[in-house]
């Protein structure tokens, strides 16, 4: 892990989500075929990419499959899932915004009406790993928002089933509308609908480059949560921080994939060297050593700064997905941190605490987009409508000003829509 002195510009952004021309064309072809052929296209792509030969009736997960899943997941895992659900629900319930109205003396009523989306589709990655936490973070805020129709898709395993823990987690949330479809074809099905899979209003959830490109392509037909890049962590630490903790947390992100970014920012050269050594030592014992090693080599950095204030400047430049603050008094620094998806304060607020259990959403802005974006929240599953009610008294009082503004913009019909109401009264 490289130790470098801080320079004015820090760049750890990765141009990784646009895909190759071949990947882009492949995704557009898949989307077109799903639009035109529906279930038949889903079955063909599932056989081609997942090696599973389904009938259309087998795309939806059966009640029996869900029941069987409970025999394959141990009680300790189920307890952890249930406790995480409690924490995540409790946190997100505090995010609910209510509709509101305000009345003026002339009788004008202005307000904002909050309405949940009608339907949402959640994509859950499959392959070699299962991600129950992704299910919790996508579905719970949608449920709290009041979304009535929530469906889930995930690529099948080679045996034609979904991972048992995925089915158990979904069922614990009351989600039974689950389909064994993955990749760009799943995104297309959610966006446009097929004979079996209903179309939705919004698609959320992470996936590979083909999923990301498909979400980008269907945006506008449906809403999406975000185009997420590889995971990243920045740790801001002073001389009192524990190098073993820091190294472990850096590697917790590096093991995600080769493009993940792990960065330490510190004014202590002693700590920098200790962390560098500790990363190497812990890395040698990781099951995903090859992935983590490539991540650390390509995107791992230790920035040595003059002091903590300069460190905060570096943090705000990077605008990381995850920021851990391991300093003597981390709460004192909170007000100076402007750009970060999630902020973990203190040495026992390790990033995996937030990933799985604490309650805040782990679907966060990546690749510097924390400068202008926020974590997934209940509000992402609601839409706002403005409410306007004018009395005759209020209209008469304001009409002249409204038509004046319309004519300033050269929109005579707008002005006349106001004037005609005044003429009716004369």
UniProtKB/TrEMBL annotation:
Family matches, as SUPFAM superfamilies: ALDH-like (SSF53720)
GO terms of biological process kind: L-histidine biosynthetic process
Pathway(s) annotated for this protein in UniProt: Amino-acid biosynthesis; L-histidine biosynthesis; L-histidine from 5-phospho-alpha-D-ribose 1-diphosphate: step 9/9
Keywords from the UniProt entry: Amino-acid biosynthesis, Histidine biosynthesis, Metal-binding, NAD, Oxidoreductase, Zinc
Binding of substrate, residues: 231, 253, 256, 322, 355, 409, 414
PROSITE patterns linked: HISOL_DEHYDROGENASE (PS00611)
Cofactor: Zn(2+)
Binding locations of Zn(2+): 253, 256, 355, 414
Entry binding sites for NAD(+): 123, 185, 208
The keyword Phosphoprotein belongs to this UniProt entry's keyword annotation: no
Keyword Transcription annotated: no
UniProt cofactor note: Binds 1 zinc ion per subunit.
Pfam families per record: Histidinol_dh
Domain of life, per lineage: Bacteria
Enzyme Commission number, as recorded: 1.1.1.23
MF GO annotations: histidinol dehydrogenase activity; NAD binding; zinc ion binding
Function as written in the Swiss-Prot or TrEMBL entry: Catalyzes the sequential NAD-dependent oxidations of L-histidinol to L-histidinaldehyde and then to L-histidine.
PANTHER family named in the record: HISTIDINE BIOSYNTHESIS TRIFUNCTIONAL PROTEIN (PTHR21256:SF2), HISTIDINOL DEHYDROGENASE HDH (PTHR21256)
Official protein name in the record: Histidinol dehydrogenase
Gene: hisD
């Amino acid at each position: 892990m490289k130790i470098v002195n801080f320079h004015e510009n820090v760049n750890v952004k990765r141009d990784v989500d646009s895909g190759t021309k071949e990947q882009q064309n492949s995704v557009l072809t898949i989307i077109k075929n799903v639009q035109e052929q529906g279930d038949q296209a889903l079955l063909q792509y599932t056989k081609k990419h997942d090696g599973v030969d389904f009938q259309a009736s087998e795309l939806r997960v059966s009640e029996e499959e869900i029941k069987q899943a409970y025999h394959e997941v141990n009680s300790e895992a189920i307890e952890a899932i249930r406790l995480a659900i409690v924490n995540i629900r409790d946190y997100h319930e505090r995010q609910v915004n209510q509709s509101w109205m305000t009345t003026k003396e002339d009788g004008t009523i202005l307000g904002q009406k909050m309405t949940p989306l009608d339907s949402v589709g959640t994509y859950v990655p499959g392959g070699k790993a299962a991600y129950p936490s992704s299910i919790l973070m996508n579905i719970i805020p949608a449920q709290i928002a009041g979304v009535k129709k929530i469906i889930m898709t995930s690529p099948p395993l080679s045996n034609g089933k979904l991972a048992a823990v995925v089915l158990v987690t979904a069922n614990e949330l009351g989600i039974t509308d689950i389909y064994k479809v993955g990749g760009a074809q799943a995104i297309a099905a959610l966006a446009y609908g097929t004979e079996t899979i209903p179309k939705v209003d919004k698609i959320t959830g992470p996936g590979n480059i083909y999923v990301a490109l498909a979400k980008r392509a269907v945006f506008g037909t449906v809403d999406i949560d975000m185009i997420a890049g590889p995971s990243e962590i920045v740790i801001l630490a002073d001389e009192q921080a524990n190098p073993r903790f820091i190294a472990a947390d850096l590697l917790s992100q590096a093991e995600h994939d080769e493009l993940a970014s792990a960065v330490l920012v510190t004014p202590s050269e002693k700590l920098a060297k200790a962390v560098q050594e500790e990363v190497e030592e812990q890395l040698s014992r990781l099951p995903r050593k090859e992935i983590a090693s490539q991540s650390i080599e390509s995107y791992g950095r230790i920035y040595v700064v003059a002091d903590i204030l300069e460190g905060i400047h570096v943090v705000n430049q990077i605008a990381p997905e995850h920021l851990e603050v391991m300093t003597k008094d981390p709460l004192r620094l909170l007000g100076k941190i402007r750009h970060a998806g999630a902020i973990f304060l203190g040495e026992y607020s390790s990033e995996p605490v937030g990933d799985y259990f604490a309650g805040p959403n782990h679907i966060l802005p990546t690749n510097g987009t924390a400068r202008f974006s926020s974590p997934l929240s209940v509000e992402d599953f609601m839409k706002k409508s403005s409410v306007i009610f004018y009395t005759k008294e209020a209209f008469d009082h304001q009409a002249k000003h409204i038509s004046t503004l319309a004519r300033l913009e050269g929109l005579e019909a707008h002005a006349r829509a106001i004037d005609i109401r005044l003429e009716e009264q004369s």
